[in-house]
Amino acid sequence: MRIAVIPRTTGTQLWEAEHAGVEAGAKRWNVTLYWNAPTREDDVERQIAMFERAIDQGYDAIVLSPDQPLSLLSSVNRALAHGLRVVVVGSPMPLAAHPGLKQIVNDDSESGRLAARRIGAQLHGHGEVAVLGVDGDLSSLVRRERAFRLELASNSPDVHIVDEEAGAFNRAHVEKTAADIIRTQPRVQAIFALTSEATQGSFAAVQNSGSGLILVGCEQDFAISVTSKEMDSLIVEDTVGMGYQAIQWIMEPGDSNNSDVELKPLLVTKDNLHQKDVQQMLAFYWKQE
After folding, report:
1. How far apart are CA 64 and CA 55, in angstroms?
2. What is the end-to-end Cα distance of the chain in Å, rounded?
């Protein structure tokens, strides 16, 4: 069995954690993995080319974390038509049910709710917040932002979203935007950053400003930063579990149902950073001995 694994990008802990998961699965079921990805999350054309190459080179299955789900629809359907098993990891794709298809994704609504509860608690139920990294083309981010908004309205109605800014995959843009918000909107007391790049850009802006603004982000790579005053907390996805379950389903599809699976994220703070369940989710040491 030869399996191609194509995450959104390489070199980030979010997807190196998935690498740890698929390698653990490969070791258990004795399969051969090919791992590669674009160097940027917005390089959709390169990810499509890698996916198409995996089909043409005769891989038995593909594990895909799509950069832009709509752009990869035809490629995934082509793989299924060729008899490959496909597991979509991370963000869901609008695909019809198929016996060769499994989606194992993050519960993005829970990500939004966790962030809203944390910010509501840290602001003691009163204040203004900005949301950065908005992208209406990505359903996962739309769900994350919507759940954040609904949770605030339900449980912290006096915490108001006063600014929403795009820039999901552009760190420099988000950093400038966050710096502008800090400078021109002194009543904003918190930022929710929806993506890894938005988190990185917001963190740099808060760090440079010394503002003490509450930052809740979505980024495994910044886990250690929750021990600093510039990062309050992080919403961490279980990409380790996604990777392992992807290989498990490919190797034993008859042992589990074919419905989509949503894995719960965790809220990571300085108080729980070193707990065992958190450290397992942050694992990214994937090389086999």
Report:
1. 12
2. 21
Cβ partners under 8 Å of residue 186, min gap 6: none
Q: Vertex 36, ends 35 and 42: CA angle to 5°?
A: 140
Overall pTM > 0.70: yes
| Residue 18: both structure tokens together | 């998935």
d(CA 211, CA 183): 9
Identify the segments of the chain with pLDDT beneath 50: 288-289
- Residue 270, helix vs strand vs coil: coil
How confident is the model at residue 288, as a pLDDT?
Answer: 46
Query: Hey, which residues does 131 pair with through a beta bridge?
Result: 164, 192
Alpha-carbon dihedral 199, 10, 246, 216, rounded to 10 degrees: -10
> Are the CB atoms for 70 and 47 separated by under 8 Å?
no
Contact 142, 112 (CB under 8 A): no
Whole-angstrom Cα distance, residue 253 to residue 159? Answer: 45
What 3-state class would DSSP assign to 88?
strand
